[in-house]
Fold these 2 entries.
Entry 1:
Amino acid sequence: MATAAAAVAPYPTKAKEIGGEGARMHRIRITLTSRNVKALEKVCADLIKSAKNERLRVKGPVRLPTKVLVITTRKSPCGEGSKTWDRFEMRVHKRLIDLHSPSETVKQITSISIEPGVEVEVTIADV
């Protein structure tokens, strides 16, 4: 009966099942930041797909609140004329992905092609 339970489990639960005897499990947090939502979502989907192909535990993408940076400025360069204003804004989108895996497999996962304009920050912590 134990073999049937092992076949049903979707993710490996022990370090030796993933990376051998000496592999230490790490909690890896990948932070993705971009102004372009489509490029950000594509990179998130590619990362999660490659992590699931490696049979890792994946949490995310967690969508963090969008930062809206606003600049209000006068339209007239000299100050003459009617007092009309322009509002310019830049929206910064952020996603978090958490992985539980040995640090060696992160290099394989993050080797995907990353869209231009998407910044990736990887933080590794021991479990």
Entry 2:
Amino acid sequence: KLQFLYFIEKSEERHKKMAHKIASDRLALVGVQEGYRDVLKIQLEEEQAQHEATKIKVEQLTQACFDMKEEIRKLQSENEQLSDKASNHDSAVAASASAAKE
């Protein structure tokens, strides 16, 4: 009978130790999960910041392209005006030369 009681007592001790180990492992797992969540949250924040920086850069480059297109239009307009002036000048010189021959 004593052996049986001793066996039960030892079984209860093992059960308590095992329950404590399971509880400890669960807490450790929760800690790991929370740590992993924190790491993922930081990575997400970094990726969002990078995305915002890229978005701003794209907007700046797009604006620069529009500005360059506008500058090209202005230069083309100036070029056409100068070309017209040169053509008018050439016509005037040709007319003067014709008049001078006569």
